[in-house]
Write a structure and sequence with these properties.
Layout: H1 2-11, H2 15-59, H3 64-81, E1 86-94, E2 106-117, E3 128-139
Antiparallel strand pairs: 1-2, 2-3
Helix pairs in contact: 2-3
Length: about 150
């Protein structure tokens, strides 16, 4: 009886190593997936903040051209200050609210597209993800404008 038990226990040698070899890559993949999800969530929030900053900067300008320039500068500065490295950034500004007559409320909307690179993670197929964020800011109804 003891001999049979010893033989059976000897037959299980190395099974922990096999289990570890199977489970370890799965754990590493799960960890990389969690890091990617966290990076996207943080980048999304910071992209929202950059869109708010850009819309506010654009709404303070008097002309549409100046609003577009101010929004692009504010978005770039905000993303840099927050440590977001976008492989490509696109800032779209709808400054048509600056053309409404004085006494009426206008709106400036800024949309930011930031492509976040995920290729440094060990996930296959995780190249990049484009995050899009929009924000609308009110233009003061009684502020002078040049249209």
């Amino acid at each position: 009886m003891r001999r049979a038990l010893r033989r059976r226990l000897r037959g299980d040698r190395g099974s922990e190593a096999v289990q570890a070899a199977i489970v370890t890559p799965l754990l590493i993949a799960f960890l990389c997936l969690a890091i990617a999800a966290g990076r996207l969530a943080i980048s999304g929030g910071k992209t929202d903040a950059a869109a708010e900053d850009a819309a506010r900067a654009a709404s303070l300008e008097r002309t549409q051209l100046a609003a577009q320039s101010a929004a692009a500068n504010a978005a770039t500065r905000s993303l840099e200050d927050q440590g977001i490295r976008c492989s490509s950034t696109d800032v779209d500004v709808d400054a048509s609210g600056l053309a409404v007559p004085i006494g009426q409320v206008g709106y400036v909307t800024v949309t930011i597209r930031c492509t976040v690179d995920l290729s440094d993670l060990l996930l296959p197929g995780a190249g990049s993800k484009t995050l899009t964020s929009s924000f609308t800011s009110v233009v003061d109804a009684f502020r002078a404008r040049q249209g």
